[in-house]
């Protein structure tokens, strides 16, 4: 299909400019951005009126566990270990593949409706997550989470991960890519991580891992290995593989230099870190050092939504208040973390910008609501007053998957019904 978006305000995140332009999409790519270009009459030409709309690259949720939407709101306001031991882990032990499928669809609908076009996921029953991604039209980096405190568990996880990668890497016209996901340095011993590194190199996939999320983790690693999580992983050679590191809340200046040196993608999850009282990641310092910092929501059990517009705002506010500096993490930078910089953090080179030749992952925000008036500065409006519900149209891989807030591929009512039924049953036990 060929799509022509006419007269939109188009965000150019290379120059941080907003330009009135048309966008031509041919196949899965952006073929032209500009004004006054001729489009030959085509049979399959779909024209979208871009007036009162701003076009930006689809948002990139760099860290989530999408099927955890099933546990949203089941239990909140608890210490992390209570919450995991008494609510999340018992419920997860009852999960079936079908539950994960419906929970994933629920999360994907929520993400599409709030402008996310790519997400990076770590969970189990990943075949079901992949089916949900394939059907929904969204793009994703998928990985099966591996915990290896019991070596047999680790071995099983690694085998399933390798099978998953072989089955799904590059599927759905390349919308699905894969990674290996050792859960965290405190749940995966060094000998297991070494096996993971070997497999990641062999399969040429990135590693997706939680790092330095809580102070408890820092003490465990210090006690076991006499060092900090980032130094520990560096000494194992883990960062020789492209690494997507979630959280990185408790890192010192030297560790920030290590992250920069190895081009580790550092995924900041401000709302989850606030809600679980994990701490405040030194995002301003990381950005100044040149670390690739992306943004994520984490799972909906610890956020409790998957809205990236809200997340980029939270990221900005959290840095301002923690640095006691209103200039910290400005509007343009937080938008970049959710788009262009987020793509680089995940190692994805063809998304994150509206640029000719890039994949056509584009969202249109309706700027005709009151929160977009007056039109002083579109970057400030998006960062500080836009809402997920302002997302009007979502295009992924050159296909419209939501138009005027109607999903084109998925049955939203059925998904809500199934996810509700299953979520309630899983938590009730
Ligand atoms: Zn996580």
UniProtKB/TrEMBL annotation:
Give me the residues that bind Zn(2+), please. Answer: 63, 65, 210, 298
Reply yes or no: does the keyword Ubl conjugation apply. no
Residue stretches making up the Amidohydrolase-related domain: 55-400
The GO terms describing molecular function are: 5'-methylthioadenosine deaminase activity; metal ion binding; S-adenosylhomocysteine deaminase activity
Q: One Pfam family this chain carries?
A: Amidohydro_1
| Protein's job | Catalyzes the deamination of 5-methylthioadenosine and S-adenosyl-L-homocysteine into 5-methylthioinosine and S-inosyl-L-homocysteine, respectively. Is also able to deaminate adenosine.
Name of the protein this chain belongs to: 5-methylthioadenosine/S-adenosylhomocysteine deaminase
Species per Swiss-Prot/TrEMBL record: Carboxydothermus islandicus
Q: Which gene encodes it?
A: mtaD
């Amino acid at each position: 299909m060929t799509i022509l978006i006419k007269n939109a305000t188009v965000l150019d995140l290379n120059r941080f400019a907003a330009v009135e332009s048309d966008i031509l999409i041919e196949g899965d790519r952006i073929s032209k951005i500009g004004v006054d270009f001729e489009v030959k009459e085509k049979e399959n030409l779909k024209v979208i009126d871009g007036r009162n709309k701003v076009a930006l690259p689809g948002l990139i949720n760099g860290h989530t566990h999408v099927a955890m939407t099933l546990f949203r709101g089941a239990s909140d306001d608890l210490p992390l270990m209570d919450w995991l031991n008494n609510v999340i882990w018992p419920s997860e032990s009852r999960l079936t593949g079908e539950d994960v499928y419906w929970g994933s669809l629920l999360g994907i609908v929520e993400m599409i409706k709030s402008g996310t076009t790519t997400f990076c996921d770590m969970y189990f029953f990943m075949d079901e997550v992949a089916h949900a991604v394939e059907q929904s039209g969204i793009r994703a980096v998928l990985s099966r989470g591996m915990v290896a405190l019991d070596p047999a568990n680790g071995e099983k996880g690694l085998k399933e991960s390798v099978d998953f990668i072989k089955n799904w890497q590059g599927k759905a016209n390349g919308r699905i890519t894969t990674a290996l996901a050792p859960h965290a340095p405190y749940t995966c011993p060094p000998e297991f991580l070494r096996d993971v590194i070997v497999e990641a190199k062999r399969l040429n996939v990135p590693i997706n891992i939680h790092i330095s999320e809580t102070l408890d983790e820092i003490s465990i690693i210090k006690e076991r290995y006499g060092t900090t999580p980032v130094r520990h992983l560096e000494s194992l050679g883990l960062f020789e593989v492209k690494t997507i590191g979630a959280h990185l809340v408790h890192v010192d200046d030297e560790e920030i230099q290590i992250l920069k040196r190895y081009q580790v993608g550092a995924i900041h999850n401000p709302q989850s870190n606030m809600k679980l009282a994990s701490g405040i990641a030194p995002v301003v310092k990381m950005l100044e050092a040149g670390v690739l910092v992306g943004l994520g929501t984490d799972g909906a059990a610890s956020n409790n939504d998957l809205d990236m517009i809200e997340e980029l705002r939270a990221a900005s506010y959290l840095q301002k208040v923690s640095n006691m500096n209103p200039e910290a993490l400005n509007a343009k930078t937080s938008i970049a973390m959710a788009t262009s910089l987020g793509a680089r953090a995940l190692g994805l080179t063809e998304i994150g910008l509206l640029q000719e030749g890039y994949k056509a992952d584009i969202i249109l925000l309706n700027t005709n609501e009151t929160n977009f008036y007056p039109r002083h500065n579109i970057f400030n409006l998006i960062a500080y007053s836009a809402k997920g519900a302002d997302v009007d149209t979502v295009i992924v891989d050159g296909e419209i998957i939501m138009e005027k807030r109607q999903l084109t591929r998925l049955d939203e009512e059925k998904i809500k019904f199934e996810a509700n039924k299953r979520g309630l049953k899983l938590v009730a036990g």
